[in-house]
Amino acid sequence: MGQSRLLPFVGLLFFHLIPNQLCKTCEVSEEKYFLLSPLWKTMTHSKYTMGTQSADVLLSLRLVGIQNQTLIQPLSQQVRRSGGSKGVNLSSGQLALITLALGACHTPDEAFIYDNHLLSRLENKFQAEIKNMEAHNGSPLTNYYQLSLGALALCLFHGRYSTTQVAELFAPGNKNYYFHGQFVVDIGAMAVLALTCIKRGLANGQTKTEKEDLRSIDNHIQSLVDKILLEKKRNGLIGNTFSTGIAMQALFISSDYYKESKWNCEQTLKTVLEEIAQGVFNIPIAAAQILPALVGKTYLDVNRDSSCTSGLGNFDISSHKPMSTKPPNSPSNISIHYSVKINEIYSTTVTVPSGSVFLDVMEEAQKKNETLFGFTVEQSSWGPFITSVQGLKASNTDRTYWELLSSGRSLSQGVGNYVVHDGEDLEVRWSKY
Ligand code: B12
Ligand SMILES: *[C@@H]1O[C@H](CO)[C@@H](O)[C@H](O)[C@H]1NC(C)=O
Ligand SMILES: *[C@@H]1O[C@H](CO)[C@@H](O)[C@H](O)[C@H]1NC(C)=O
Ligand SMILES: *[C@@H]1O[C@H](CO)[C@@H](O)[C@H](O)[C@H]1NC(C)=O
Ligand SMILES: *[C@@H]1O[C@H](CO)[C@@H](O)[C@H](O)[C@H]1NC(C)=O
């Protein structure tokens, strides 16, 4: 056999020797990096009040290679503050994100993880989630997005966990992958990231248990990838706008689980760039969750030595032209129909200035009648989250929450961001997911 005919064969062999590292990405080319500047602006021009929000942003900036200390230092400081001794009330996923952000790219921040025992704290939080599942009909304290983040951080930073337990927990039929019976792409994709990390660690497993765990995890990944691809929309988004970034990461690292023809990555990328131009990713955490995938990075690159130096590192996005600012709102008032639905429906009509958000409508209604429209919110990394209306409180254990709707359709933004329109029919509904 001549050399030229042998070469492709050697190439093929090479791929077969490292099947676990197979990774297909499509990314924004360098001359188009300026298209990412709206994300950049959102992430750098915001005040961060929540430690976990800073963690998501810090993780993202580090992964894409930003090393500007003027930006990184204040974020890092805030993340360290929230992960310190006062962070006793952090949820499993919050602690996992803090660990990922501080451990990303092998900076001096990494020492904080070990000095503050973040991994053993995370191990305890992870077990507490499982205890709650055992006591409450399979419902964790938080949700499977956070369990996935937890498993991912424990895997990447060599915390303790049982692969057999993870293989059981993350079976694709588990109810926690579904809200209202519908597969949640964000959750499935984060699980694929965690399971792939664990799979790579098991690749050379020798014992019978290791081999069984590997086979089971491999099957889970296959099934989750199939489900993620079923949620691909005609315009290329996967799930919705805000789940697409994590779904892209999951599909990058799992390319040996689907045929190339099953996903047109370039189309997804094109649609995401259009949405960016329209200002859709206008809160820091939304920008942080989409950015890594756009430059071909995934959360599995967090502790890889060579990552973090490539990407946007040397690109000065800030020098590019600012986004066109919206014209100031005309000072007109609009009228909104608003209801609270528990079993009965309680309705009212309120007047708010145009440009108002859902939360403004709720506050107007509350002023009218505190008993019917009184509510409480909690700040979260996505903005204000409605925790109770008429004194009725949402509960993770019961899988209840206050769902936001417009004309009967569930919204994909929260009360702090959704801009309302004249004549709109808004509802907050007591729902079970
Ligand atoms: C789990 C989850 C839920 C659970 C939260 C309770 C639980 N069991 O943990 C439930 C089902 C209740 C829920 C509800 C909603 N959610 Co939700 N949720 C998620 C999910 C999958 C994971 C969140 C998480 O744990 N993050 C990790 C931890 C470490 O971060 P955290 O900040 O501490 O997490 C808390 C907040 O995220 C908060 N939360 C969850 N969803 C939302 C949504 C908004 C707008 C806010 C302000 C807070 C919030 O609950 C988390 C647990 O306490 C994310 C997916 C994602 N990509 O982030 C979507 C996500 C955040 N949710 C989203 C949406 C739209 C909603 C709803 C507005 C849907 C609706 N039409 O009613 C409601 C919130 C309404 C309200 N009451 O204010 C969007 C937000 C997009 C955006 N631009 O704002 C996301 C990104 C999903 C998506 N791809 O569209 N959600
Ligand atoms: C670093 O970030 C700061 C704050 O955004 C900015 O003013 C400065 O120009 C940046 N420096 C470089 C070298 O990009
Ligand atoms: C932790 O939560 C408990 C109970 O919710 C609360 O009493 C306590 O003040 C919180 N601690 C901190 C440091 O936030
Ligand atoms: C809008 O409503 C407020 C409060 O009801 C009122 O003071 C204001 O004059 C109204 N503005 C317009 C343009 O109608
Ligand atoms: C609020 O609504 C309840 C029930 O309809 C009514 O009994 C009460 O008087 C109302 N309160 C105000 C301040 O209008």
UniProtKB/TrEMBL annotation:
Keywords: Cobalt, Cobalt transport, Disulfide bond, Ion transport, Secreted, Signal, Transport. It is found in: Secreted. Disulfide bonds join C26-C265, C105-C308, C155-C197. Residues 1-23 form the signal peptide. One of its GO terms (biological process) is cobalt ion transport. The keyword Protein biosynthesis does not apply. Residues 355-431 form the Transcobalamin-like C-terminal domain. GO terms for molecular function: cobalamin binding. InterPro entries: Cbl-bd_prot, Cobalamin_Transport, Transcobalamin-like_C. It comes from the Eukaryota. Cyanocob(III)alamin binds at T142, N143, Y144, Y145, Q146, D186, N240, Q289, W402, E403, L404, L411, Y433. Its main location: secreted. One of its GO terms (cellular component) is extracellular space. Transmembrane segments: none annotated. Belongs to the eukaryotic cobalamin transport proteins family. This is Transcobalamin 1. It comes from Chinchilla lanigera (Long-tailed chinchilla).
